[in-house]
Fold:
Amino acid sequence: MEFFKIVLICIAASITYGIIHDQVTAHICVEYFSVAHPRVLPFTSPTLLAFQWGVLATWWVGAGLGLGLAASARMGSRTPLAARDLRTPIAKLLFCMALAALLSGLLGFCLAKTHVIALSGWLALVIPPSKHPAFLADWWAHSAAYLAGIVGGMFLCILAYRSRRCAQPL
Structure:
Protein backbone atom coordinates (compact mmCIF):
# COMPACT_ATOMS: atom_id res chain seq x y z
CA MET A 1 0.00 0.00 0.00
CA GLU A 2 2.88 2.41 0.79
CA PHE A 3 4.25 1.90 -2.73
CA PHE A 4 0.99 3.21 -4.23
CA LYS A 5 0.79 6.02 -1.66
CA ILE A 6 4.19 7.26 -2.83
CA VAL A 7 3.09 7.13 -6.46
CA LEU A 8 -0.15 8.99 -5.66
CA ILE A 9 1.66 11.63 -3.59
CA CYS A 10 4.05 12.27 -6.49
CA ILE A 11 1.21 12.53 -9.01
CA ALA A 12 -0.75 14.90 -6.75
CA ALA A 13 2.34 17.01 -6.03
CA SER A 14 3.24 17.17 -9.71
CA ILE A 15 -0.25 18.22 -10.77
CA THR A 16 -0.46 20.81 -7.99
CA TYR A 17 2.91 22.25 -9.02
CA GLY A 18 1.89 22.19 -12.68
CA ILE A 19 -1.34 24.07 -12.09
CA ILE A 20 0.37 26.75 -9.97
CA HIS A 21 3.28 27.08 -12.42
CA ASP A 22 0.93 27.29 -15.39
CA GLN A 23 -1.28 29.86 -13.67
CA VAL A 24 1.75 32.14 -13.50
CA THR A 25 3.04 31.49 -17.00
CA ALA A 26 -0.38 31.58 -18.67
CA HIS A 27 -0.92 35.03 -17.26
CA ILE A 28 2.52 36.15 -18.46
CA CYS A 29 1.92 34.94 -22.04
CA VAL A 30 -1.30 33.11 -22.86
CA GLU A 31 0.02 32.43 -26.37
CA TYR A 32 2.44 29.92 -24.88
CA PHE A 33 -0.63 27.73 -24.31
CA SER A 34 -3.13 29.00 -26.87
CA VAL A 35 -0.74 28.97 -29.86
CA ALA A 36 2.21 26.70 -29.04
CA HIS A 37 0.15 23.86 -27.53
CA PRO A 38 -2.48 21.77 -29.30
CA ARG A 39 -6.09 22.69 -28.60
CA VAL A 40 -7.64 20.10 -26.32
CA LEU A 41 -10.67 21.97 -25.06
CA PRO A 42 -11.94 25.27 -26.52
CA PHE A 43 -10.47 27.43 -23.74
CA THR A 44 -9.20 30.96 -24.30
CA SER A 45 -9.02 31.95 -20.63
CA PRO A 46 -5.47 31.87 -19.22
CA THR A 47 -6.87 30.44 -15.98
CA LEU A 48 -8.66 27.54 -17.70
CA LEU A 49 -5.72 26.86 -20.03
CA ALA A 50 -3.44 26.73 -16.99
CA PHE A 51 -5.70 24.22 -15.22
CA GLN A 52 -5.96 22.09 -18.36
CA TRP A 53 -2.22 22.00 -19.09
CA GLY A 54 -1.28 21.93 -15.42
CA VAL A 55 -2.91 18.51 -15.29
CA LEU A 56 -2.22 17.15 -18.78
CA ALA A 57 1.47 18.06 -18.88
CA THR A 58 2.41 16.94 -15.37
CA TRP A 59 0.48 13.87 -14.22
CA TRP A 60 2.75 11.56 -16.21
CA VAL A 61 5.89 13.22 -14.81
CA GLY A 62 4.53 12.64 -11.31
CA ALA A 63 3.71 9.03 -12.20
CA GLY A 64 7.25 8.45 -13.48
CA LEU A 65 8.80 10.05 -10.42
CA GLY A 66 6.38 8.17 -8.16
CA LEU A 67 7.23 4.78 -9.63
CA GLY A 68 10.97 5.44 -9.45
CA LEU A 69 10.78 6.90 -5.96
CA ALA A 70 8.51 4.14 -4.67
CA ALA A 71 10.88 1.50 -6.04
CA SER A 72 13.88 3.28 -4.52
CA ALA A 73 12.12 3.68 -1.18
CA ARG A 74 10.45 0.28 -0.85
CA MET A 75 12.02 -2.49 -2.93
CA GLY A 76 14.88 -4.72 -1.90
CA SER A 77 16.19 -5.89 1.45
CA ARG A 78 16.95 -2.46 2.94
CA THR A 79 14.63 -0.91 5.52
CA PRO A 80 11.75 0.61 3.51
CA LEU A 81 10.73 4.26 3.68
CA ALA A 82 7.10 5.24 4.17
CA ALA A 83 5.25 7.78 2.06
CA ARG A 84 5.34 10.27 4.96
CA ASP A 85 9.17 10.08 4.92
CA LEU A 86 9.20 11.45 1.39
CA ARG A 87 6.83 14.43 1.75
CA THR A 88 9.55 16.90 2.73
CA PRO A 89 12.04 15.79 0.06
CA ILE A 90 9.30 16.02 -2.58
CA ALA A 91 8.37 19.52 -1.36
CA LYS A 92 12.05 20.54 -1.55
CA LEU A 93 12.24 19.23 -5.11
CA LEU A 94 9.18 21.30 -6.07
CA PHE A 95 10.74 24.38 -4.48
CA CYS A 96 13.96 23.83 -6.45
CA MET A 97 11.92 23.43 -9.63
CA ALA A 98 10.08 26.69 -8.96
CA LEU A 99 13.33 28.51 -8.27
CA ALA A 100 14.91 27.15 -11.45
CA ALA A 101 11.81 28.15 -13.44
CA LEU A 102 11.81 31.66 -11.97
CA LEU A 103 15.49 32.29 -12.62
CA SER A 104 15.42 30.75 -16.07
CA GLY A 105 12.25 32.62 -17.04
CA LEU A 106 13.79 35.91 -15.94
CA LEU A 107 16.96 35.11 -17.88
CA GLY A 108 14.99 34.18 -21.01
CA PHE A 109 12.98 37.40 -20.76
CA CYS A 110 16.10 39.57 -20.31
CA LEU A 111 17.93 37.86 -23.17
CA ALA A 112 14.92 38.34 -25.44
CA LYS A 113 14.48 42.00 -24.45
CA THR A 114 18.14 42.67 -25.29
CA HIS A 115 17.86 40.70 -28.57
CA VAL A 116 20.44 38.12 -27.53
CA ILE A 117 17.84 35.43 -28.26
CA ALA A 118 14.80 35.63 -30.50
CA LEU A 119 11.72 33.65 -31.28
CA SER A 120 11.96 32.10 -34.74
CA GLY A 121 10.06 29.90 -37.14
CA TRP A 122 6.31 29.77 -37.42
CA LEU A 123 5.84 30.89 -33.81
CA ALA A 124 7.59 34.19 -34.58
CA LEU A 125 5.10 34.75 -37.38
CA VAL A 126 1.91 34.05 -35.41
CA ILE A 127 2.82 35.57 -32.04
CA PRO A 128 2.87 39.37 -31.92
CA PRO A 129 6.45 40.69 -31.68
CA SER A 130 5.60 42.57 -28.48
CA LYS A 131 4.85 39.17 -26.85
CA HIS A 132 8.08 37.45 -27.92
CA PRO A 133 10.02 38.22 -24.68
CA ALA A 134 7.12 36.99 -22.52
CA PHE A 135 6.75 33.86 -24.67
CA LEU A 136 10.47 33.11 -24.37
CA ALA A 137 10.30 33.70 -20.61
CA ASP A 138 7.54 31.08 -20.41
CA TRP A 139 9.44 28.68 -22.66
CA TRP A 140 12.61 28.99 -20.60
CA ALA A 141 10.71 28.68 -17.32
CA HIS A 142 8.93 25.51 -18.45
CA SER A 143 12.11 23.97 -19.85
CA ALA A 144 13.97 24.69 -16.62
CA ALA A 145 11.18 23.23 -14.49
CA TYR A 146 11.15 20.00 -16.50
CA LEU A 147 14.94 19.71 -16.43
CA ALA A 148 15.11 20.42 -12.70
CA GLY A 149 12.28 17.97 -12.08
CA ILE A 150 13.87 15.17 -14.07
CA VAL A 151 17.39 15.63 -12.70
CA GLY A 152 16.11 16.36 -9.19
CA GLY A 153 13.77 13.38 -9.34
CA MET A 154 16.63 11.04 -10.22
CA PHE A 155 18.71 12.56 -7.43
CA LEU A 156 15.79 12.10 -5.02
CA CYS A 157 15.50 8.41 -5.98
CA ILE A 158 19.21 7.92 -5.29
CA LEU A 159 18.97 9.74 -1.96
CA ALA A 160 15.93 7.71 -0.94
CA TYR A 161 17.67 4.43 -1.67
CA ARG A 162 20.91 5.47 0.01
CA SER A 163 19.08 6.71 3.13
CA ARG A 164 17.68 3.24 3.77
CA ARG A 165 19.64 1.13 6.24
CA CYS A 166 20.74 -2.31 5.21
CA ALA A 167 18.58 -4.94 6.83
CA GLN A 168 20.39 -7.22 9.26
CA PRO A 169 20.61 -10.82 8.06
CA LEU A 170 18.67 -13.31 10.19
